[in-house]
């Protein structure tokens, strides 16, 4: 039985254990006069039985999955003669991949080395034995846990405290996993970036004005030594993001003000969902729209005014990206404007202020922390967008502040550098991690700035 079926089995046993524990608590409560004579609600007794049934089995499953393959590979590698198994890590990985593919039937068995075939057969037997052993142990552990949890159900058993303590520890574990995952991502990107900066000086990368990452892969190959100045990428990213925010912030904010303060309930019930549909459109659709509709329109419009607009311009990519970001700003701004206490509106109107004066001088300042948070979130979304820029703005690393010219962004170059067959330890590939580190740093600084703004104005209005 594979892992997916085992998970379904454990889930089914957990549901069965819940209803079994709950039924036992109701049976105990019935002769006592009702569930009010139990220490905890019947659902807590059911959850207690389900936890004992599922959690130990899931823990065993996780440990088994982590250590199963390395142990099997080690046993199979030991069965191969030293002349084949010995060598560096790459040779070992190649040998194990060959054995695994033969075992899985991906590679044909005809013409293979008998020792490889024997190792593949051994791997197949060990994997089969492992699956049956895991299934038997999971069933035994689940049934034992179910019986133990069911047997502890009684009138005085504190099931609520036990269940809540377990859930609290599970939530703590999930929080730790999230933090450790973030830390792992940062450290992995940082490590690879350090490897890159050993080949390319960090000063040249941060302040260089030319981006041409093409390098010679082999010593005997004719090729460029590469230029890794990232300033054109940063400028292109900021230019596209600025155009997007120039479109998204006014439209999104004004839409939120209208929906929150001026629109009737009937209009709001239709307009708000229709506006938020924009958030559900895939970015590739926006990219097609920008490349096939908006970019030619802007080019023809520029020609009619005597302006030269590139077919792949930052204006087209940023404009469509701004349309995509409108729901982020509008939805968040609408929520924070609606959350402003009605007493502030009533007080302003009672002092003789008009509706527009109340919105401009009372409601918007009071809602400013949430509005700034929404704008910062939208900026982070714009900086990290890839598909629209790839399809509408191109990949030319031009150092320009003219939105009518073709530019590229950091995220597009990351995708480009990691696409295709590349040497992982070459500066060209490692440059993607350095760009990712810079992108992470910029986004972090934006979030810190947003928190400072929110803190400042929240102290003023709370």
Properties at a glance:
2 strands, two-stranded antiparallel ribbon, 16 helices, mainly alpha, MetI-like fold, 462 residues
Task: Summarize the structure in words.
- The chain is an all-alpha fold and 462 residues long.
- The chain folds into two domains: 3-157, no CATH class; 227-461, MetI-like (MetI-like fold).
- The protein has 16 helices and two strands.
- The chain has a two-stranded antiparallel sheet.
- It is flat and about 80 Å long.
- The model has no long low-confidence stretch (mean pLDDT 83).
Order of helices and strands: HHHHHHHEEHHHHHHHHH
CATH topology of the largest domain: MetI-like fold
> Strand order of the main beta sheet, please?
1-2
The CATH homologous superfamily of the largest domain? MetI-like
CATH class of the largest domain: Mainly Alpha
Number of spatially distinct domains: 2
CATH architecture of the largest domain: Orthogonal Bundle
Reported for the largest beta sheet, the result is: 2 strands, antiparallel
Q: What helical percentage do the residues reach? A: over 70%
Question: Which parts are unreliable, with pLDDT below 50 for 5 consecutive residues or more?
Answer: none
What is the tally of beta strands?
A: 2
Q: Based on CA inertia axes, which overall geometry fits?
A: flat
Distance between the termini: 58 Å
Oligomer: single chain
Average pLDDT figure = 83
Please report which band the strand proportion falls in: under 5%, 5-15%, 15-25%, 25-35%, 35-45% or over 45%.
Answer: under 5%
How many helical elements? 16
Radius of gyration: 31 Å
Class derived from helix and strand content:
mainly alpha
